[in-house]
Amino acid sequence: MSTQSPKKTPDAYEQLVSEVEQITAVESASGVLSWDQQVMMPAGGTPARSKQLSTLSSLSHELLVDGEVGDLLDELDDADLTDDQAAVVREVRRRYERAERVPTALVAEISETTSEALNAWESAKADDDFETFAPYLETLVELKREYAEHIDPDADPYAVLFADYEPWLPLDQAEDILTELRETLVPLIEDIRASDASLATNAFSGRFPEETQEALSRDVLSTLGYDWDHGRLDTSSHPFTSGNQFDARVTTRFDESDPLGALTATIHEFGHAWYNLGLSKDDFGTPLGTSRDLSVHESQSRLWENHVGRSKPFWEHVLPTVKDHFDGIDDLTAQEAYEAANQVYEDNFIRVEADELTYHMHIIVRFEIERELISGELDVADVPDRWNDLYEEYLGIRPETDSVGCLQDIHWSHGSFGYFPTYSLGSVMAAQLFAAAEDDVGSLDDRIRAGEFDDLTGWLRENVHQHGQRYKTNDLVVQATGEDFSASYFLQYVTEKYDELYDL
């Protein structure tokens, strides 16, 4: 919603907004079909769904580049606009200028290939058969190189792809942050592994039926404030969130031997959905009603997952509910649950099951492989070996199968090269936002311990959610926290937390 008294709105601006709302409607429909494909669609539906998604992708592209958008942007070059209106024009112009350089036929080909690749990836992962997925990955790498070449033939193609997910955050800034994480976390992880501290790592040993885990996930979502009138919980092979401020759905997955994995994944996806539901309803369909790209989105999921869901006050609040659902943990204490939720694993291969520290090594492995694939330094056929070598170098472990190695993530089947760095960037941003929230509203520990999340939600609504794409990424961080985007808060947070946990 606009925060300013608007000037007289040019007719061209109103027409532009109408065009953008139509494009958003098509993209929203595509999102629902994609959600259905990953959650409910029978496997045999892939050929038809590929054509449906390809058609919608082409239509969205054509509406953006072949309709009135370009002419309207030209009319608005020197228009007298409010700051909010200027932000809308800025965001639409950027999308338009990138999209007009990409042929519609290429957009359709990428969409159809990704839909087919999704089915191939799921089969390859289930059968531990990278060779089944490799041809699709090779095609997507080639298509994405071509895509980047159309947008900016003089730029690093990976930087062009990264900008699809982070348009206002320079790649070199992202690389600097990832370097800071690696330089601080690798020795911290080594110190932890050398520590004699004994954490309650087996606090949740045993079998926990899927139906009881799902019931717990639903109760925790309700505790956090999830609006069931505007969302739902389902299962998928890879947890994700889909939707907007009217319909924000989350998915999770269950492992009967790992109830913490499902719970943290559910809280993580809640953060994404909570952000979507906090966007301005009055501005739906425009950049002001659209989330500010992936690092900001990931900051919301990681904030709720780590700063809330892995905190000791949260476990002091939620443990009685957990005991109501699970047998065999009557004597479990909040401290033991907290330790189990924050243990640093020595042999975890799965990113979405990783602890808060080694998680970022998982991201850096993917980041380096993506850069090598897009640059042509790495052949697709060599991805499994390269993956395993990097895991051995950074984490001291070597995957025995591709299913727990290079096939574990869904992102490359979507052609989402440049996406992975946003996970670590989001974690860094989450720490800075959480610290700023506590500066403004006071310590949140007692509120979390009491199951009261309104103050935190209110701060996030006011300082992040409501703005949509009003500000560029770095500017949004400054508006919310009063400081430039920095890794310092995250590094201080994890150092203090894990020093205490592991008696370093």
Verbal overview:
This protein has 20 helices and 3 strands. Helix 6 crosses helix 7 and helix 10 packs across helix 11. The mean pLDDT is 94.
Please name the defining characteristics of this protein:
504 residues, mainly alpha, Neurolysin, domain 3, three-stranded mixed beta sheet, 20 helices, 3 strands, 2% strand
How many angstroms separate the termini?
Answer: 48 Å
CATH topological fold name of the largest domain: Neurolysin, domain 3
Strands in their spatial order, largest beta sheet: 1-3-2
Quick one: how many beta strands? 3
Oligomeric form: single chain
How many helices? The count is: 20
In this structure, how is the largest beta sheet organized? 3 strands, mixed
Give the averaged pLDDT, no decimals.
94
Specify the structural class: mainly alpha
What's the order of the H and E elements? HHHHHHHHHEEEHHHHHHHHHHH
Measured by DSSP, the beta-strand proportion falls in under 5%
What is the CATH class name of the largest domain?
A: Mainly Alpha
Strand and helix layout:
Layout: H1 11-39, H2 46-65, H3 69-75, H4 83-99, H5 104-127, H6 130-151, H7 157-165, H8 171-194, H9 210-224, E1 233-235, E2 241-243, E3 248-252, H10 259-278, H11 293-308, H12 312-325, H13 334-341, H14 359-375, H15 383-395, H16 421-441, H17 445-449, H18 454-463, H19 473-481, H20 488-501
Parallel strand pairs: 1-3
Antiparallel strand pairs: 2-3
Helix pairs in contact: 1-2, 1-3, 1-4, 2-5, 5-6, 6-7, 8-16, 8-20, 9-10, 9-12, 10-11, 11-16, 12-13, 14-15, 16-18, 16-20
